[in-house]
Amino acid sequence: MTGAGFSTSGLTLPMTIPPGQSTAFNVVFAPGTAGNVTGSISLVSNAPNSPLAISMSGSAIASTALLSSSASSLDFGSVLLGSNSSLGVTLTNSGNANVAISKIVVSGAGFAVSGAGANTTLTPGQTAALNVIFAPSATGSVLGSITVGSNAGALSIALAGSGAQPSSHSVALSWNPSTSVVVGYYVYRLLADGTYAKINAAPVVLTDYSDTKVLSGQTYTYVVTAVDADNVESDYSDPVLATIP
Predict the structure, then answer these.
(1) What's the order of all strands across the beta sheet hosting 85-93?
(2) Is residue 50 very low, low, confident or very high in pLDDT (cuts 50, 70, 90)?
(3) How would you label 70-93 residue by residue, b for 16+ Cβ within 10 Å and e otherwise?
C-alpha cells in the first residue's frame, strides 16, 4: 500500500478464496494534513493478473471551528419599570468542526439570558437559541453585552435599552363579542421584533380592556383573540393602533 493516511481493515493474510467465492475488506482514509492525496493497493496472489492494483485518492480539508450569531446587537428600546421585554438570538456553528461553548457572560444592569449555556456543544450546522431579557430597575439608558466564549473564539453581542416610567395616559380597548361560545378574550400587543405578546394573564370576560403600561410618545398596535372552554384561541382580530400623547 502507498499513500499517506490510507490503511485497510478486514484482511487476514495469507487467505484463500475458493472458486466463485468473494471476500470483502475496507479501505480507510485518515488524513493527517490538509491537501490532496493519492495512493494504491497492490494485491499479490497466484492469479495470472497478479499483482492486482487498486488506485485511491482523497482530499483532506482543514478543521475549522466557527461560531456566528443571527444578530450583532439588540436594542430593547424603552421598557417600563416593573416589566420586561425579551428578544431572541440564534447561535450557529458555521464551521466544519464541533464548537464547544465554555461560557456565556452578560453585562449591563437589568439584562439576563437563558437558553444555551456553558458546556453546550454544537455540531457543524447546528444552532442554539438564546433568549435575552431586559427588566430595568431604574429610569435611563443602559448599555450591556453578551460574550460567548468557545473553542471558536469569543463572540460578542451588544445590548441597549432604557428604563421608563409609565405614562399618565392609558389605552381603552373595546371590541364586538364573538359569535361563538367563548369564555373570554386575550389582548396582545406588538413587540419590537414584530411578534405579539399577550398582556392579560387570564381571559377577560367583558369586551373591553385598559392598558395602563404605556409610554408617552409611543404608538402601540393591539389585536384580540377569543378563547373557548378548551383554551383554544381564535385567529388574531384586525389590528388597531393607539398613539400616546
Answers:
(1) 67-69, 85-93, 127-134, 111-115
(2) very high
(3) eeeebebebbbeeeebbbebebbb
pLDDT band at 191 (very low <50, low <70, confident <90, very high): confident
pLDDT at 43 over 80: yes
CA–CA separation, 212 vs 204, rounded Å?
Answer: 15
Name the residue type at position 227.
V
Coil vs helix vs strand at 177: coil
Cell of 239: 389590528
Which long-range contacts (C-beta less than 8 Å, at least 24 apart) are formed by 162-165?
A: 162/76, 162/77, 162/78, 162/79, 162/136, 163/78, 163/79, 163/80, 163/81, 163/110, 163/136, 163/137, 163/138, 163/139, 164/78, 164/79, 164/80, 164/81, 164/136, 164/139, 164/215, 165/80, 165/81, 165/139
For the stretch 104-116, pLDDT in tens is 999 999 999 998 8
User: Which pLDDT band, with edges at 50, 70 and 90, does 125 fall under?
Assistant: very high
**Do the beta carbons of residue 150 and residue 116 sit within 8 Å?**
no
Q: Which residue has the cell 361560545?
A: 181
Q: Give the Å distances, CA to CA, from 89 to 14, 17, 60, 171.
A: 60, 60, 33, 31
**pLDDT for the residue numbered 60:** 87
Task: Point out which residues pair with 146 in neighbouring strands.
Answer: 106, 157
